[in-house]
Automatic annotation (TrEMBL):
Family named by the database record: In the N-terminal section; belongs to the NnrE/AIBP family.
Stated name of the protein: Bifunctional NAD(P)H-hydrate repair enzyme
Coiled-coil ranges per UniProt: none
GO molecular function terms noted in the UniProt entry: ADP-dependent NAD(P)H-hydrate dehydratase activity; ATP binding; metal ion binding; NAD(P)HX epimerase activity
Binding site for (6S)-NADPHX: 58-62, 129-135, 140, 159, 260, 326, 377, 442
Keywords: ATP-binding, Isomerase, Lyase, Metal-binding, Multifunctional enzyme, NAD, NADP, Nucleotide-binding, Potassium
Binding positions (AMP): 412-416, 441
């Protein structure tokens, strides 16, 4: 897992690493520039015209080193120097001196910024890095706004978009990047939904600093990548039977809202459950039996919603239960949820209307078994925990809520955050905008429930499900883009296992 450390700690990590390895800070900067260039070469042609805008600090030093390396590889590069009147950092100064004489480097004055007209295909932002702690002003503000106004080209930020604070929400202006290439570990603020338009696509490149140096400044926040997931999966043998793969129950649906529980149930099966049973109102039996014959169905005749009469069923025969999708928030349904939480103490996932009932009846929160998994989207979470000023505040409230109620919060979004009662928070790296479609969250409910039923720990079930969910969305939307729908994601769940080399 990649540690997500504060902007203040980034400098300390770099200093500790170079001291321990006996290398110079300039050598580490060269490593970062080389990692950027290796990534850049895989995506852009040498006939692209690249403008690299460099400040006077270490972020500018990164940009100058990148300019030198790309120019030597044959790219058409021009450097724009900003903040010439400021004393450059030592490594920035050295990289200015190392620029080849034939590489064009222009100093930007007030007038140059105001009347800037250059024929560029790619703009690289290396103006200011993680150290910024106040809104942009002066030449930097004017230049950022000028660059933001340019259209028809690709904009890339090095480490963090200029103007964006590393640990807080933006106040003022910031560079609007199409791609942000963050070194070694993503900066905390890059994961905030408020900053999505500034960050663009987030890429993280390794510059050679291992986990040991990052962990010394751990704040309990981690970025989950592909290499972290395979080891968390259970292994099954040719002698495994459907009981080994778990028996799960999905509870939900109501008149006119059967799709949610149907998708949750199929997602559980596609994730690997040996047996999936659906508890639905009587009005949904035919829908479930016809559309998903692999699932068992339990229902009360002539009912339009789940009610307390369903409590007579033996839930203890199941290894995990997911409750809420499409269930509705009727008083009778709320009565069922109260009885269910009192009765069943196995692994539970609560989603959708189950969460809305808890928000309307907060006294039921005390009935949740320890480490129950709650999967709210942003609005559902605010119904539970109260209004949030911004995403940083929301993440803190998620941590407080998780500790108080001893539950696991899966806060769904672009970088779904999984919060554990011990305060740790894990941010997912998979998924894309095309997953913003009705039913996507219901699928995640089925997937988490499935992993719990297969005997995964609460932590591994949540992490694996969220990662596979996002990866399935990426696979499904590869050719469908905006036309992606939830059932496309379900069909891609098996492919997500193949992508990770898991049978």
């Amino acid at each position: 897992m990649l540690e997500i450390i504060s902007g203040i700690s980034v400098k300390k990590v770099d200093e500790g690493f170079v001291l321990d390895k006996g290398i110079s800070s300039h050598k580490l900067m060269e490593n970062a520039a080389l990692a950027f260039c290796n990534w850049f070469e895989r995506h852009y042609q040498r006939n692209d015209k690249v403008g690299i805008f460099c400040g006077h600090g270490n972020n500018g030093g990164d940009g100058l080193a990148i300019a030198r390396m790309l120019w030597r590889k044959g790219y058409d590069v021009i450097v724009f120097l900003v903040g010439e009147n400021n004393e450059p950092s030592p490594d920035c100064k050295l990289n200015r001196e190392l620029l080849p004489d034939k590489l064009p480097a222009l100093s930007m004055s007030h007038e140059d910024i105001a009347h800037m007209e250059y024929d560029l295909n790619i703009v690289v932002d290396a103006l200011l890095g993680v150290g910024i702690n106040r809104p942009l002003e002066g030449d930097y503000k004017n230049l950022v706004n000028k660059l933001n106004s340019l259209s028809g080209l690709t904009k890339i930020s090095i480490d963090i978009p200029t103007g964006l604070p590393s640990d807080d929400c933006l106040a003022g202006d910031a560079f609007i990047a199409d791609i942000t290439l963050s070194f070694q570990s993503p900066k905390f603020s890059l994961l905030f939904p408020e900053h999505a338009n500034y960050v663009g696509q987030l890429k993280v490149v390794d510059i050679g600093i291992n986990q040991f140096y990052l962990s010394q400044f751990s704040e309990g926040k981690f970025y989950v990548q592909k290499k972290d997931i395979a080891l968390r999966h259970k292994n099954f043998s040719r002698f495994s039977h459907k009981g080994d793969f778990g028996k799960v129950m999905l509870v939900g649906g109501s008149f006119g809202s059967m799709g949610a529980i149907r998708m949750s149930s199929e997602a559980a099966l596609r994730t690997g459950s040996g047996l999936a049973c659906c508890m639905v109102p009587g009005c949904g039996v035919d829908i479930m039996q016809v559309s998903l014959p692999e699932a068992q169905v339990w229902a009360k005749k002539d009912s339009d919603c789940i009610d307390a009469d369903y409590l007579g069923y033996n839930f203890d025969r199941f290894d995990a239960v997911g409750v809420g999708p499409g269930m509705g928030t009727h008083d009778t349904t709320a009565e069922f949820l109260r009885g269910f939480l009192t009765k069943y103490k196995g692994p539970i996932v609560v989603d959708a209307d189950g969460l809305n009932i808890l928000a309307k009846h907060p006294e039921q929160l005390s009935l949740l078994a320890d480490r129950s998994i709650l999967t709210p989207h942003l609005l559902e979470f605010e119904r539970l925990a109260g209004h949030c000023k911004n995403h940083k505040d929301r993440l803190q409230k998620a941590s407080d809520f998780s500790k108080k109620h001893k539950v696991i919060i899966v806060l769904k979004g672009a970088h779904t955050c999984i919060t554990f009662p011990d305060g740790r928070q894990f941010f997912n790296s998979t998924g894309n905008k095309h997953m913003a479609t009705g039913g996507s969250g219901d699928i995640l409910t089925g997937m988490i429930t499935s992993f719990l039923g297969q005997g995964y720990s609460f932590e591994n079930a949540a992490l694996c499900a969220v990662f596979h969910h996002g990866l399935s969305g990426e696979i499904a939307s590869a050719d469908k883009k905006r036309g992606t729908i939830a059932t496309d994601i379900i069909k891609s769940i098996p492919l997500s296992y193949l992508r990770l080399g898991i049978e």
